[in-house]
Amino acid sequence: MTRPLFPEDFAGAAALRLREDSRPWIERGHNALWLVGALWLECAIVWLAWHWGSFAHLEFRDPDDALRLVQVRNFLAGQSWFDVSMHRINPPVGGPMHWSRLVDLPIAGIIIAMRPLFGDHMAEIIACVSVPMLTLLAMCVAVYFAVRGFVGPHRAVLVVALLVTSFPILTQMSPLRIDHHAWQVVASVGVIGGVLARDARRGGWIAGASMAMWVHISGEALPYIAINGAVLGLRYIARPQDEWPRLMGFVTVLALASALLLLGTHGLAASLETHCDSMSPPYLLPLFAVATLLWAGHKMLGEATIARRIAPLAIAAAAGAAALVAYAPQCLAGPFQALDPLVYDYWYLAIAEGQPVWRQDVSTATIILVPGLLGLAGMIAATLSEKDADKRFDWLSLLGMALGAFVVCLMVLRAMGVAHLLMLIGNMWIIARLYPRIAAMRHMAARVLLTASLCVLTPFGGAALSSMAVSKLANVPDDVDSKGGKTIAPYARIEALRALPPSVLFTSLDVGPEILLRTDHSVIATSHHRNIAGMTEVIHAFTAPPGTDKAIVLGTSAHYLLLFPDGNEIKRYSSKAPHGLAARLVKGQVPDWLMRMHVRGEGTTRIYRILRPAAPVSTRPASL
């Protein structure tokens, strides 16, 4: 029954409204989403202006983006939803892929919607430009809602403002960046939101569904299952009654959603195949084992003591590990364990983004470490200074997630987006802590100077300042092209190959996606590791001595051999194998089984017809 209102009730309500109205409008959350939208729009305009010149010809910066568009084209041309293999790679066998069909959906949807209005080519441009921008918008909104309840609307807006200055994150959402890396970071926001959600059960569901989407998009998410699961397990040990629904919701939804996504995107037969680089039975079975034993152990032992809470967690984790070892022990060696040693040496170790921080140049390492360490320092300081027990509990959780992500980032460069995302909250805390003190200073000059200096604490400011300092101290020269002269754009050199009849081309791995995108040709291999046979043939041939190289190339279905002497891949082959095929072709030493050809617009590309032994002459008339 509602209590009647008395005059003092009206007075109290009025006083509450007065106190609320006296706060700055942003602290009340008014128009906060408009600010988030404005921050996104400003960033999108800068990105569009910066990359404008690359739109007309779809000049992708990463071969994976080009191959992603090829995959979308195949899908729109009628390739099965369950089939993501590339049939123009290593024909007639085809090149198997580990990519998720889900990432194709927004690209394909926009192309279908725009085709009737603008035609095929313009529809692809619109899709490849707009999808990263819409992904960034989703990212900004998701970050705001994920942390708003924890830090308040005004500080949540500040986190978004820092987000649009974070190069490691924004580089995955620049125009034409249509591969899956951006969606991994977006999915990680869902996990953060689930951990911080006030409703523990719903938070567990959100975190579990987001984690399932994340690991389905990329197997690189597998370490984060352990990291985030450990954080939720520690929360349960500390606060069993409050956190059990969150932990159980996380592991249950993660297992069920992973199974549904696997079945829904691969079909039943392919879902049963074992793969170490993506979600498949070796990882799905441990998830169900963990969920089942965790629930059963909690039912039997309860949560009265710390030992009773730890025991089900330990048993479930051990059972999950045992299931992985028993089902697919080869997966313990990592997703690249099946590569030929030469492929591993020449290809995998040359991919900078897949290597640890200590194998990067000093400038790149600085860009990774400085903003991250600043964010970690902020999170540690926030945890130590927080007086509210509930908030300190959440700060500890975020700190645990950030430390785990930072370790992964140190081991694999391309994981830095997730690590930096978590650490933005620490950067925000430092700035939010310092700014009120600066604003309270009496001298205007000091206020202006110190306020401007806060830019150093942003991800962009910290990375830029430290990178410049390293460059000056290391005396790194500016990258200046002193050769001059007119050059042919890389895309034009690839498009010149259309003059050749549709054929199978034997060429370096890094240009394969562009050839598939811009011509009707097929290639033996691209830089995608499931095509083990094709990659092995390409690298072995380009590094093989006379005689061996011929046997390898003629053993494939290739009609032409292409050499891009100015490409990093060919330079690497030539340097490491000075007597190999690539090195000899660069020097102009052409074997007798290759014949040089020319097409208009080839630039520095060298095209050779592969001369095969003449087939026996048939007396049977050819049919046309």
Contiguous runs where pLDDT drops below 50 for at least 5 residues? 1-10, 476-486, 617-624
* Number of distinct beta strands: 5
Q: Biggest β-sheet: count, sense, barrel?
A: 5 strands, mixed
**What value does the average pLDDT take?**
87
Mass-distribution shape: globular
Question: What is the count of helical runs?
Answer: 24
Radius of gyration (Å): 28 Å
Spatial ordering of strands, largest sheet: 2-1-3-5-4
Element order, helices and strands?
HHHHHHHHHHHHHHHHHHHEHEHHEHHEE
The percent range for helix content is 55-70%
Give the CA-CA distance, first to last residue.
91 Å
Q: Strand percentage, roughly?
A: under 5%
Structural class: mainly alpha
Describe, in plain words, how this protein is organized in 3D.
With 624 residues, this protein is mainly α. Helix content is 62%, strand content 3%. A 5-stranded mixed sheet has the order 2-1-3-5-4. The longest helix has 48 residues, at 104-151. It contains 24 helices and 5 strands. It has a domain at 490-610.
Quick overview:
The chain has 624 residues and is mainly α. The chain is built from 24 helices and five strands.
Features:
single chain; mainly alpha; 5-stranded mixed beta sheet; 5 strands; 62% helix; 3% strand; disordered N terminus
Q: What does the secondary structure layout of this molecule look like, with pairings?
A:
Elements: H1 7-22, H2 32-51, H3 63-76, H4 104-151, H5 153-163, H6 167-170, H7 181-196, H8 200-217, H9 222-238, H10 240-271, H11 281-301, H12 306-327, H13 341-346, H14 362-385, H15 389-411, H16 416-439, H17 444-453, H18 459-474, H19 490-495, E1 504-506, H20 512-518, E2 522-523, H21 532-543, H22 548-554, E3 560-563, H23 568-576, H24 581-586, E4 594-597, E5 606-610
Parallel strand pairs: 1-2, 1-3
Antiparallel strand pairs: 3-5, 4-5
Helix pairs in contact: 2-4, 2-5, 3-4, 3-20, 4-5, 4-7, 5-16, 7-8, 7-16, 8-10, 9-10, 9-12, 9-15, 10-11, 11-12, 14-15, 14-16, 14-18, 15-16, 21-22
